[in-house]
Design a protein that fits this description.
Lipocalin; 18 strands; 0% helix; 219 residues
Length: 219
């Protein structure tokens, strides 16, 4: 849990349900925590639009956070949530890449890095090309990324080229209004579902997009 402090920064607390005690109580000099993930070992990852942090829990309060600075200074016009968290199976630490639109998968088991390049400008009528949400298929064979400007890319994590993971598919959300709260999920190996909100003259609406890949499951 992260709580904002009126005197600056935020307080990160983690409760150990096994030992029935507080495992960490740490102050981070960042007022905008956007997401928190915790590994099975108890390591905490906190992401904000400005930087990422890792905190090793242990006996006693006051663990020192390890910063994960983002490669680029954030664009003031695009201070949206930055993807910095563990994948659901804790295999990857998902981090911002070398530009505003790419992602870096830090393999927590092998130490290998997988680069997910965007290599496209922001879509017309939109302002932000940053990733908004990411999903993985079974066996971590594929990764699907939804971006704040409505672009959807699917990558094959088993094969890489000179740019990074090989791109398998591309799609765009047809909505041209401002997009909000994009969430992407994969169903099996051949369907990618994206749910999103968008604002128009009629107010806030909810949309859904499904991308059919037509791929066979890997051996």
């Amino acid at each position: 849990m992260a709580t904002w402090r009126s005197d600056g920064g935020c307080l990160v607390k983690c409760y150990d349900r096994v030992r029935d005690c507080l495992s960490t109580d740490t102050l981070i000099a960042d007022c905008w925590p956007a997401q928190i993930s915790v590994s099975e070992s108890g390591r905490i990852f906190v992401g904000s639009p400005l930087s990422g942090y890792a905190i090793d829990t242990g006996p006693g309060p006051g663990a020192r956070p390890q910063p994960y600075p983002y490669p680029l200074v954030p664009d003031p016009s695009c201070l949206t949530e930055t993807v910095f968290r563990l994948s659901p199976d804790e295999r990857f630490l998902i981090r911002p890449g070398l530009d505003g639109g790419s992602l870096l998968l830090d393999d927590q088991r092998s130490g290998h890095y997988v680069f997910l390049p965007r290599m496209e400008p922001v879509r017309p009528g939109q302002q932000c090309r940053k990733p908004a949400s990411i999903a993985f298929s079974a066996l971590n064979a594929l990764a699907a990324v939804a971006y704040h400007d409505g672009l959807i890319l699917v990558f094959d994590l088993r094969h890489e080229d000179a740019h990074g993971a090989r791109r398998l598919a591309r799609a765009e959300l047809c909505c041209i209004e401002r997009l909000e709260r994009l969430i992407i999920r994969m169903s099996g190996f051949d369907q990618v579902h994206t749910v999103f909100g968008y604002r128009s003259d009629r107010g806030l609406s909810l949309g859904r997009h499904t991308l059919h890949l037509g791929l066979a499951a890997p051996d």
